Amino acid sequence: MLTSYIKIAWRNIIRNKAFSAINILGLALGMGCSLLIFLWIQDELQVDNYHANGPQLYNVMQRQIYDGKVQAGRFTPGILADELKKQFPEVVYAAGYTGWDATLTFAAGDKINKETGHWAGADWFKMFSIPLLAGTPATALNSPIGMAISRKVADFYFGSPAAALGKSIRVDNKQDYQITAVFENLPTMSSDKYDFLINWQDCLNRNPWMKDWGNNGPHTRIMLRPDRNGGPATVATLDAKLKPFLRKYDKNVGTNFDAQLFLQAYPDGYLYSNFKNGQQDGGRIEYVRLFGIVAVFLLLIACINFMNLATARSVKRAREVGVRKVIGAVRSLLAGQFIGEALLFTLLALTLALFLVFLLLPSFNSLTGKHIHLQTTQSSFWLVLVGMALFTGLVAGSYPALFLSSLEPVRVLKGTLKFGAGARLFRQGLVVFQFVLSMLLIVGTIIVYRQVNYVQTTNLGYERENLIYVPVEGELTAQSAYKTFKDELLRQPGIMAVSSMQEAPTNIGSSTGGVSWPGKDPNINIEITHTAVGYDLMKTLKIKLAGRDFSPEFSTDTTNYLINEATARRIGYKAGGSASSLVGQPITMWGKPGKIIGVMEDFHFQSLHIPISPLIMRLSQEPGSQNFLIRTQPGQTKQALASIESLWKQMNPKFPFDYRFADDEYQKLYKSETVVGSLANYFAFLAIFISCLGLLGLSAFTAEQRTKEIGVRKVLGASVSSIFGLLSKDFLKLVLLAIVIATPLAWWAMSQWLQGFAYQVDLSWWIFALAGLLAIGIALLTISFQSVKAALMNPVKSLRSE
Fold first, then answer.
1. So what's the pLDDT on residue 20?
2. Does one domain contain both 94 and 43?
3. Which residues are 629's β-sheet partners?
4. Strand partners, 113
5. Of 371, 396, 418, which residue sits at a domain end?
C-alpha cells in the first residue's frame, strides 16, 4: 500500500508539472531562508560558548551613578583582578584585559608588520580553552617582557610555532619581548580577536593611570571555584559582596557618586551587551530573536502557500477521493496519502533548498561577516533538517489532507462539490495572515532603510568626508619630529589641515567626574567625556566654535579648555546670554585650574544610539598617544595619500604606513544595523513572493469554483473588466484587512526598534500608506493573471456539462 501511495503521489507531481514546480519552489524558498537563518542563529549562540570552564567564567561589571543617572559596562580599575583573588576565596583565577585593540609594529629579522592584540593577566590561559602549540598556561604570561603570539604570527616571523618559542620580537622599535607561548589561531566563534597577548604588568607600567582605583577602562574577568555540586560558586552571594567593594578603595565613591561591581556570565557578554539604567537590556540577542521569528514566519508563509495551492486543485482531486471512498478507502488512509504527498513535496523542496543554501552561503557570509558552513558531518545538522522537513510537511499537508478526506462521495460524484462558509473563511484567513506578515516586513524594511540612511548621512556637527586618521608612532612621538612632520604635511599638495586627537572623533569614550567651576553644587557629581587634542582641531574637523581654538601663540593653553554646548548647559549660561558668554570663565579639571577659551557647537562624538553628552577637551602634551587627523582637498585624496606615505617613509622608515578613513570608521558603528537592513530587504521580497504564490492559488481556486457563473455572465454581456473587478474585489478586501491588522503591529514593532537610537527618523503616516499601496499593487498584479484568464475563457467551454 505504501508503495502504491508513493507511486500515486509521484504520478500527480509529474502530471501537474506547473503546479508541482510552484509548490516545490515556494517550499524550497521558505525552507532555504529558514535554514540560512537557523545557521546564523546557531553561529551567534555558539560565540564564546566553547570554553571548558565556561559556566565558571564571569565578566566583572561596574555600575556608576552620576547625578542620579546610572550607567553600566565592563570598565573596571586596572588593578582589580589581583585584589579580587586576594579578597575572595570564591575566585580561583582573575585576569585584567585591555578590551581595546592595540595595533603595534612587530619586527623580527628582516620582517616587519603591524599586528593587533591586547594585554592580559597571567591567569588568562588557565581560564580560557585556547590551545597552546608551544609553552604552558602557567608560564605563557608570567613575565613582564613575555608575549604569547598566534600560530599566524609565529608562521610569518619564524616559520613555525616551535621555532618561535624563546625568540624575541621588537615592538614599536622600542622594546624586545620574549615569545613565551604560541596559541592556536582563535576560532571564529570567539568574540575576542587578537594575534598577541602581552603580560598585564607591562600594561600597568605603560599606563600608570591604571594603577589608580579611581580610574576605569580595562576589563576584568574571573573564574569562580566550583561548589560541591560541581557548579559555579553562588553568584548571588559574591554579587552581594562585590556591590560595596570599591568603597574601600576608591576615595571618589561617596554621597554624590557611587560605583558598584557586579557579575555577568562570560558567555552572555556577546549577546547581552546593552545596559539601561544599570540593568541588562538586550543586545545582539534582540536580532537573534527577531530573525528566529522571521524564520518561523517564512516557513509558515510557505506552508500556507502550499495549502492554498493544494486547495485550488481540490476540484480535480475530489472525484479521485469519491471513487476511492466508494471502493472502500477509509478517511484515515486518505488523509495519510495526502500527508504523504505533502512530505514528498517537502523532501523534494528540501533538496532544492539545500542546493540554494550551498549556492548562497558565500554571499550570505560576506553580508553578515560570518564564516558559516554546512555542518554535514554533525548529527545535529541532520536532526534539524529532518525536524524541519517533518514540521513543514505536516503543517503544509494537514489542511488539504483533512479537507479532501472529508468529502462526501455522493456529492462529489454528482458534480455538486461546494464548500461551506467555514472552509472559505479559513482559506481567506490564511491569505490575510500571509499578507499581515508581508506588510510587517515591508514596513520594517522601509523604516530600517530610512534609519540606516539617516545615520549614514546625518550632519554630525563636523565633516567626516575627506578626513584621514594616521597613528602617531615611532620617531614622530618626539615633540620636535611631530611638529616637523605636521609642518611638512601642510606643504604637501592636496592637504588642507592637520591636527591630532587621542581618539577617533566618532568614538570618544573616556569620562570623568573631576571637572568643577564656580557655582557648581559640590553635592552633584557630573560625568563629562574628555579627550586630549592638538592644535587646529576645529579647523581640521570644521566644527563651529564660539571663542578660539588651541594655538601655539598662547603658552597658557596647556591649562585651558574647550567645552561643547552640552557642557555649557550644565555649567549654566549667564542670564540672557548664550554659550559664548562662558568664554574666558574659569574651570578646573583634575585639580588643574584654567579657562574656557572656546565653546564648540555640539557634535556627535559617539554613536547615534547615544545622546550628545557634555565634552571637555584639553591640549595634548604627549604626541605618542595621538592620531593625526588630516583633511584633504575634495577629489585629491589619492594624491594626498601618496604624499603622506612618501613623507612617512622619509621620517619614520621603521614603521609601516597605516591609515584609516573617517567615513569607514563611522560606518563600523552601524554594521549590525546595515546587515539587518540588507537581510530585511531580501526576506521581505521572499515573503511577498511566496505570499503571491498563495494568492495565485486562491485566485485560481475561486476562478475554478465560479467557472459556470462567469460563463453565464459573459453570455449575458458582461465585459472582461467587469468580470476582472468581480473576481478581484474579494481579494482586495482580504489585503485591506491585512493592512488594517498589520499597521498597528508594525508601528509598535518599529517603535520598539527605534528606541535603541537617541536620534531617529519619524514613523510618518506615508510609510504605512506606501507599504499598503505596495501590498495592494502586488496583490492586484498577482490576481490579474487568473482573473483575466477566467474572463477570457470561452463561455461554451465553461457551460458545457459532461
1. 76
2. no
3. 469, 499
4. 106
5. 418
